[in-house]
Amino acid sequence: MLSHDSIWRAIDTLAERHRLSPSGLARRAGLDPTSFNKSKRQSADGRARWPSTESISKILEATGATIDQFMALMQPGAGSSNGLPAESNRPTPGIPLIGFAQAGAGGFFDDGGFPVGHGWDEIEFPVAPQRQAGVYAIEVQGDSMLPLYRDGDVLIVDPGAQVRRGDRVVVKTREGEVMAKVLSRQTPRGIELLSLNPDHPNRNFEMKDVEWIARIIWASQ
Fold it and tell me: Any idea what DSSP says for residue 108?
């Protein structure tokens, strides 16, 4: 049966069969790497978003799969035994990805700001294995970080990295607000943050009001 869930299941299974994350499959097909992220499968008001026929055509061309094989992957329990061409390359390391809008909700981070729980997407990033644990990505949503970061840009965050004055950081407050700023000053009592967008105010917080602060180590443009 053709349904929203079955279409996305087929895309996920096709990506897994080729040892790719959904974002890796999109990239191979020449699409926006975030096209198949779980956060893009529903609109903000909860309505289902479907992949376009053009997107499906491009991933079939990129992987060598036929439409019949793709249809077979829509079935529950479909796996790697569907006659699809196999690949022997090792999977590209992936790190957790979440949007800023979701990051403020509970259950995604531990007290140190490291990613935990479920509901994360995944993005490919060539981070060294010894650094990969704890590193995650946040997708920019909206224009509050212009002109430096645009809607759809991905920020790679390392909560284990030392934070210094002048670093670009992601901060989560105990009230659940998540923001990307420049660390202007930090003392045992508080932090001062400069806004990336001149239309948005700078922010100051006492440390007791900050849940965690983590350094941005890389950003896609």
Answer: S
Segment holding 132, helix H or strand E: helix 129-132
* Predicted confidence (pLDDT) per residue in 14-34, tens digit: 888 877 778 878 888 888 878
Q: Is 196 exposed, middle or buried (0-12, 13-18, 19+ CB in 10 A)?
A: middle
- Whole-number mean pLDDT of the chain? 82
Number of helices (H) and strands (E) in the chain: give both, helices first. Answer: 6, 9
What domains does the chain contain, in order, with CATH numbers?
4-72 (1.10.260.40), 94-219 (2.10.109.10)
CA distance 86 to 153: 32
Distance CA 204, CA 183 (A): 10
Q: What is the DSSP-derived secondary structure letter of residue 202?
A: -
Rounded-to-integer distance, Cα 182 and Cα 170, Å: 9
Q: 131-142 burial, b if ≥16 CB within 10 A, otherwise e?
A: eeebbbbbbbbe
Query: What CA–CA distance (Å, rounded) separates 194 from 200?
Result: 9
CA–CA separation, 202 and 92 (whole Å): 38
Burial of 68 by CB count in 10 Å (0-12 exposed, 13-18 middle, 19+ buried)? exposed
CA distance 150 to 89: 33
